[in-house]
Structures are given as structure tokens and as C-alpha cells.
């Protein structure tokens, strides 16, 4: 019974997430929005590569593969961090539904993970569109070939990595929800800080070995770095992914444990201080 | 009512709305800190990327200048364009509408406060960027730099006032539209690379890009502080920015009147949770 309830809330959470994220406009405008934004981000990285390489007088195709795939698959952590970073604020202060979710049985965590499913689905559409359109444009107009052979991609690894990534970034979102539960003015900066830090420390557009040692250590503790490494391994079908996979599982498990623990503490504190339904206009 | 008292009234409205912005800087210092640190994270990533590519050092300066000017674009989008939507959500828009004040004065006050706030942030980004990375700025012609900067900011906030007027009709679309106008503008305006001198952009795209005040502003500033340009080298930038400012400000005034009229007729001014 409890499992059935949890699944029901999860499905409802995903449905609400889809509605909240998409029903501000008609489906075609929403699709254009979902595609235009990530393509622009990928374009930005591609153009930096192109113009920087041109100025340097060398064209490193391997580095193009590195930055381009990094920029495209970074859409997953970025989308999840942004949507879940606003979730508590929106549901508590804007739509005023958080208290109702709390008094329903089996509700909050399955609801949040339902929202994770909705955001991850949107991110997947953006990733596919950015990959196809970005690859076509950069190879047609600028002669930049990613070197990805669709027949040689390690699909089980790619799909497994994406699923593991969604779980990891879902728990990252839970962590952001925990912080937002006990704070009132952080929702905008928190998600921006998170995506900015992940962008800098996860080897998205440059190898983390370029960073100062302390920053490298922080980067190696994040699942996002292994997520991107595994995606690159699966696309290039390079066979050396066991260590990255082990670290990805380990860092995801650590992240999950930390997020669940902090969420429990935050929830306890929020209930005791009457923060679940406190209205704040920010 | 005489012209003098009207001018005083408008001045008071401008001051009152700008005051809120400036007060916010002190009341919520962590927001101001975030608005310096967050762009520095992506700026640093792009600088490292240029370093991996072995691009000339001037490209690092390009990124810092673009990143500093990005603050103005963010402020235009989130502090101007979407502002009336936030005001609607929090219930203050209707107060503006019933008060005997000019809505244009409200927007100008908002812009003025935003310009002061954002200039402080942009200077902070420049300072931190210069400290963290090997970048040297040499200002050859300070007067040209000031003219370019002022013209760019005036044209940019003219665009902000225009967007704020157009977004007056919107509900949640306002935030999504502002969100959508971020990355494509970064790409077109050359936040992190030169656009106007690049061989990778077709002439038509370059022409389109000059319709965004940021493009000419960033390029002009880079010419003056990184590439050793003088007054004459940025005259086309000045002319372009002056034209944009002259077009955008009156156009935004007309748009504001039109959108306010439509909003009143369709009863959208007090609609929340759209």
C-alpha cells in the first residue's frame, strides 16, 4: 500500500512538474523554448572553441569533442539544479501548496522526485535537440567533426550513465530543497551558485587539472565530473570507464546519503519553526 | 500645474524608485555578492578554456570585459524587463497605477538605480578578474571610453524600458522570455569573443548583432582598453549606440502607453499566478 501511494505521488509530482514548466504557453512555443536555450549555450561553447582555436592557429578536434559533449550533457545538472532550486520557494510562497503537499500521506520526497522526472524529461529533449542540431551545424558550416559514430556508441553505458546522473542530480536537487526549506531569500542565488560551481569544477569545457589543487579536490568529489567522463567514454566507446563508473556510483551514494540526512534535519527544523507555510515575498 | 512642478514630481518619482534599488544593495548584501561571484564562475571557466586552446592573452581580457558587461544585460532582463511582472505578483503594480505619477518616471528610476548598482558589480568583476588572471588593461583614451560606456548603458536600459513595457501583458511568460533572451544574446553580442571582427560571422549576422547595444558597447570598450584603439577607432560604435539610444527611448515610451492601455482593457494589471 505504501509503495503504491509513493508511486502515485511520484507520478502526480511528474505530472505537476510538467504542467508547471510547460503550461505558460502553447506546446510549440514551449518546444522552441526548450530547444533554443540549450542550443544557444552549445553554440556559445562551439564558437569560443572556433574563435579561440583560430586565434591560436591550431584546431584540436579532440578538445572540440570534449567541450562540445561537456556543454551538451551539462544540460542535465543545470536543468535539475535550476528547477529544483526554485521548487520550495514556488510551492511555498508563490502557489502556496507546500503545506497541502505536507499534509498528504507519503508526499514530500516522492513529490520532489516526481518533479525530478519531469525536469529530467525536459532536459533529455533539450540534450537530444542540442546534440543533433549542434553537430549538424558545426560539421556543415565549420568543418568540426565530433567523431562520434552512431553505430559504435556504447548505448548501455550511455543510458546507464544518464539514469545514474539523473539520480545524482535529483539528490542534489533534494539538497537545494533542504536549504530552501530553512531559508527564504536564497532560491535564486542558490541554483545559480550550484550551476556555476558545477560548470567550473566538473570538467565541462576544460579539464579540471587546470584548476588550483583545492578546487580540483572539490571537483573530484562531485558526481558531475564522472557523469561527463562516462558520457564521453560511451560516445567514443573508449573502453576505459570502470574507474569513472565506480567513482560515479560512490559519489552518487555519498551525495544521496548527505541529501537525505540534511533534508531530514531541514524538515525537522522547518516544522518546529513554522517555516512550511511561511509566506515571504521575494 | 506648471512645467517646473511636473519636473519636480517626475524627479521625486525617479529618486523614489532608484532609492529602492540602492537601498536593496545594502539591505541584501549577499545578493550583491552573488551577482559578482556567480558570473565569475563561468567567466573563469571560459578563461581556462581559452588557456587550453592557447589563445592569445587578449582573449582573456575579452572574457572579463564581456563578463562585466553581462551584469548590465542580466540587470536589464531581470531588474527591468521582468520587473512589472514581479510588481504584479507582489501587488505593487496596482499602486503605481493608481498613484498620480508617470510610469515612465518609475522605469527611469528603476533603470538609474540599476545602473548604479550594476556599475559597482561590473567594476568588482573587472577587479577580481584582473587579480585572478594575467590580464592587462591599458586605457588610451578615457573620454572615448566614458562616452562609449554611457551610450551603451543608455541604449541598453532604453531596451530594458521597452521590454518592461512589452512584458507588462505577460504572466509567467515574462520570466521565461527573460530566460530565453539570455544565452542567444550572449552568442550574438560576443560576450566572450569578438563578433564584429570575426570571420566566422556572416555580415548579415553582424548587422543583426549591432541592433543589440551590448555588441557595440563591448566591442568599443575592448578596442579601447585591450586592443589599443583611439577615439577615431570607436566613432562607428558611438554613432551606432547613439542611434540605438535615440530610437529605443521614444519607442519604449510609446510601447509603455500602448501596453498599459491594452492591460487595462483586458484587466491584466492585477492578474496573479498566470
Helix count from the secondary structure assignment of chain A: 11
Q: Which value, in Å, is the CA radius of gyration of chain A?
A: 20 Å
Which percent bin holds the helix content of chain B?
A: over 70%
Shape of chain A: globular
Structural shape of chain B? globular
Please write the string of helix (H) and strand (E) elements of chain A. Answer: HHHHHHHHHHH
Strand content of chain A: under 5%
- Using only C-alpha atoms, the radius of gyration of chain B works out to 19 Å
Pairing-aware structural class of the strands and helices of chain B? mainly alpha
Following the backbone from N to C, one meets helices and strands of chain B in this order, namely HHHHHHHHHHHH
Counted beta strands of chain B: 0
How much of the sequence of chain B is in beta strands? under 5%
The termini of chain A sit apart by 39 Å
- DSSP E strands of chain A, number: 0
- Oligomer description: heterodimer
Which runs of chain A of at least 5 residues are low in confidence (pLDDT < 50)?
none
Structural class of chain A: mainly alpha
User: Mean of residue pLDDT of chain B?
Assistant: 89
Measured between the Cα atoms of the first and last residue of chain B, the distance is 39 Å
Structural summary, described in words:
- The complex is a heterodimer of chains A (282) and B (274).
- Chain A has 282 residues and is mostly helical.
- Chain A has one domain.
- Chain A contains eleven helices and no strands.
- In chain A, helix 7 packs antiparallel against helix 10.
- Chain A is globular, with a radius of gyration of 20 Å.
- With 274 residues, chain B is mainly α.
- Chain B has one domain.
- Chain B contains twelve helices and no strands.
- In chain B, helix 2 runs antiparallel to helix 3, helix 3 packs antiparallel against helix 6 and helix 3 packs parallel to helix 7.
- Chain B is globular, with a radius of gyration of 19 Å.
- The mean pLDDT of chain B is 89.
- Chains A and B meet through helix 2 and helix 8 of A and helix 2, helix 8 and helix 9 of B.
Amino acid at each position: 500500500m505504501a509503495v503504491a501511494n509513493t508511486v502515485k505521488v511520484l507520478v502526480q509530482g511528474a505530472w505537476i512538474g510538467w504542467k508547471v514548466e510547460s503550461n505558460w504557453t502553447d506546446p510549440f512555443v514551449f518546444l522552441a523554448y526548450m530547444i533554443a536555450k540549450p542550443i544557444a549555450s552549445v553554440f556559445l561553447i562551439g564558437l569560443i572553441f572556433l574563435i579561440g582555436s583560430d586565434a591560436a592557429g591550431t584546431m584540436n578536434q579532440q578538445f572540440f569533442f570534449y567541450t562540445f559533449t561537456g556543454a551538451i550533457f551539462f544540460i542535465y545538472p543545470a536543468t535539475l539544479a535550476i528547477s529544483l532550486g526554485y521548487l520550495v520557494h514556488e510551492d511555498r510562497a508563490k502557489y502556496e501548496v507546500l503545506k497541502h503537499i505536507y499534509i498528504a500521506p507519503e508526499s514530500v520526497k516522492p513529490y520532489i522526485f516526481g518533479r525530478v522526472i519531469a525536469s529530467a524529461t525536459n532536459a533529455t529533449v533539450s540534450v537530444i535537440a542540442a546534440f543533433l542540431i549542434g553537430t549538424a551545424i558545426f560539421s556543415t558550416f565549420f568543418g568540426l567533426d565530433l567523431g562520434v559514430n552512431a553505430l559504435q556508441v556504447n548505448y548501455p553505458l550511455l543510458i546507464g550513465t544518464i539514469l545514474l546522473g539523473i539520480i545524482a542530480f535529483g539528490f542534489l536537487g533534494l539538497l537545494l530543497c533542504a536549504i530552501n526549506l530553512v531559508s527564504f531569500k536564497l532560491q535564486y542565488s542558490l541554483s545559480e551558485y550550484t550551476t556555476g560551481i558545477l560548470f567550473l569544477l566538473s570538467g565541462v569545457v576544460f579539464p579540471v587539472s587546470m584548476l588550483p589543487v583545492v578546487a580540483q579536490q572539490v571537483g573530484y568529489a562531485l558526481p558531475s565530473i564522472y557523469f561527463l567522463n562516462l558520457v564521453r567514454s560511451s560516445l567514443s566507446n573508449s573502453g576505459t570507464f570502470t574507474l569513472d563508473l565506480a567513482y560515479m556510483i560512490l559519489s552518487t551514494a555519498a551525495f544521496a546519503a548527505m541529501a537525505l540526512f540534511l533534508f531530514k534535519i531541514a524538515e525537522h527544523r522547518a516544522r518546529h519553526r513554522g517555516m512550511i507555510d511561511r509566506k515571504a515575498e521575494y | 500645474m506648471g512645467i517646473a512642478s511636473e519636473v519636480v514630481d517626475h524627479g521625486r518619482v525617479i529618486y523614489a524608485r532608484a532609492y529602492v534599488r540602492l537601498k536593496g544593495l545594502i539591505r541584501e548584501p549577499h545578493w550583491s555578492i552573488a551577482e559578482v561571484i556567480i558570473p565569475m564562475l563561468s567567466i573563469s571557466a571560459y578563461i581556462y578554456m581559452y588557456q587550453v586552446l592557447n589563445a592569445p592573452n587578449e582573449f582573456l581580457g575579452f572574457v572579463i570585459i564581456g563578463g562585466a558587461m553581462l551584469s548590465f544585460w542580466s540587470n536589464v532582463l531581470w531588474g527591468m524587463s521582468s520587473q512589472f511582472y514581479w510588481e504584479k505578483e507582489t501587488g505593487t503594480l496596482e499602486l503605481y497605477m493608481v498613484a498620480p505619477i508617470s510610469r515612465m518616471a518609475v522605469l527611469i528610476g528603476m533603470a538609474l538605480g540599476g545602473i548604479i548598482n550594476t556599475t559597482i558589480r561590473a567594476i568588482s568583476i573587472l577587479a577580481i578578474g584582473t587579480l585572478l588572471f594575467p590580464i592587462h588593461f591599458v586605457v588610451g583614451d578615457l573620454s572615448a571610453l566614458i562616452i562609449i560606456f554611457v551610450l551603451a548603458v543608455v541604449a541598453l536600459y532604453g531596451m530594458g524600458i521597452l521590454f518592461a513595457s512589452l512584458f507588462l501583458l505577460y504572466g509567467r511568460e515574462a520570466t521565461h522570455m527573460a530566460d530565453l533572451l539570455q544565452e542567444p544574446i550572449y552568442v550574438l553580442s560576443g560576450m566572450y569573443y569578438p563578433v564584429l571582427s570575426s570571420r566566422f560571422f556572416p555580415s548579415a549576422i553582424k548587422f543583426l548583432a549591432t541592433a543589440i547595444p551590448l555588441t557595440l558597447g563591448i566591442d568599443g570598450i575592448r578596442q579601447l582598453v585591450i586592443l589599443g584603439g583611439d577615439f577615431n577607432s570607436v566613432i562607428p560604435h558611438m554613432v551606432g549606440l547613439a542611434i540605438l539610444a535615440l530610437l529605443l527611448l521614444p519607442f519604449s515610451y510609446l510601447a509603455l502607453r500602448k501596453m498599459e492601455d491594452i492591460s487595462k482593457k483586458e484587466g491584466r494589471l492585477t492578474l496573479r499566478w498566470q
